[in-house]
Amino acid sequence: MKRLFVVAPTRRDLLNLADPRLLQRFDLVFEERPGIDGVFGSSDSTAALAVVVADRLGLPSPGYEAFMRCHDKLVSRRIQAGVVPEATPRFEPIDAMRPPDRAPLPYPFFIKPVQGHLSQHAYRVDSDRRLAEVLATARRAGFRHLIAEQLLSGRLVTFEGFMHRGTMTPIGVTDAVMHDNGISFNRFEYPSTLPDRPQQAMAGVAARLMPAIGFDQSIFNIEFFVRDDGSVWVVEVNGRMSSQFAPLVRAVHGVSTYELQFELAAGCRPTLPPRRDDVVAASFLLRTFQDAVVRSIPDAAPISEAFPGAQVELLVREGQRLSENDDDVLSHRLAVIALSGPDREALVRRYQQAVSLLPFELGPVRVGVPQNS
């Protein structure tokens, strides 16, 4: 049995680590100790820590420099432009402390921090005035190094795969379903409904790009836009598993991506069972689009009782102001609900029922009054 050091497990980690299959196969420890075979982290921060610890102990990892090449959006774009130019949008760096005299790209374009996540401080820019506003906002938030990118369109999907000894193996493609604002995610559906051609094109991009980054011995994911003509365009590269998709992969394949990543962290080559044709899964994001104070949070147990295998991650706490969370600029997440079913229509119906079983009590924000009073 391989011993894995789980670095600073998140709430989502703890939900997924309760999988009996994992506990039968791996000895999970939560502090560094002798006899460790691998180190694991799932989020941007904990995955980075896991790489540092693994490198120091001489254990398998993608390597810190390769990991950071994925997460520095400017460095990643420059590598993409060299090896997969057909899938790389136009881009330009911006220093928010030294605003450019003219727009770096033709309007409209997108601006985001060189290092960021969850669409934090990511904006569409349509004019000189809007550009000045966005740069001022970035300065106030402490984001100096930004990247302007050609505005992409199409279907937003995520390709997930893993590298083992220089060879890329696909896991699958997950579809993103957005709210009407084009920024906030409504849900993620797995497996994708895309035809084989664009899925194979994404796999081809990944097979060239990840070795060029120097990335190995880990799961990664790449967000793509897929246009109507089947062409694929890289949105961003993440040098870690997508933990939110883990219960979806488990529902469809019978094996969680946590298990795959544990095997990679221990130096082994994982095996992904074929997907079932009679199951689809989705991760829904329960959101509100106005700031509020959480008066009470519900018990998630009724959802697990109604839908065996469902997973509910509560993202807020009682007394919290929603805008304190690190969300996108237009909405606030309350919970993540993972469900499976025989088809997508059934998933939406089950989600609607799940929401009715998960009543959050939200109150208005009172300016100048402590929100936990």
Domain count: 3
Strand order of the largest sheet: 12-11-8-9-10-13-16-15
Measured by DSSP, the beta-strand proportion falls in: 25-35%
- The overall pLDDT, averaged over residues, is 94
Tell me about the largest β-sheet. Answer: 8 strands, antiparallel
Spatial gap, N to C terminus: 50 Å
Question: Might you state the CATH topology name of the largest domain?
Answer: D-amino Acid Aminotransferase, Chain A, domain 1
The quaternary structure here is single chain
Which architecture of the largest domain per CATH? Answer: 2-Layer Sandwich
- What is the level 1 CATH name of the largest domain? Alpha Beta
Measured as a percent range, the helix fraction is 25-40%
Total beta strand runs: 17
Q: How many individual helices?
A: 11
Which structural class fits the helix and strand makeup? alpha+beta
The poorly predicted ranges are: none
As a whole number of angstroms, the C-alpha radius of gyration is 21 Å
Order of SSEs, N→C? EHHEEHHHEEEHEEEEHEEHHEEHEEHE
Instruction: Assign an overall shape.
Output: globular
- CATH H-level homologous superfamily name of the largest domain: ATP-grasp fold, B domain
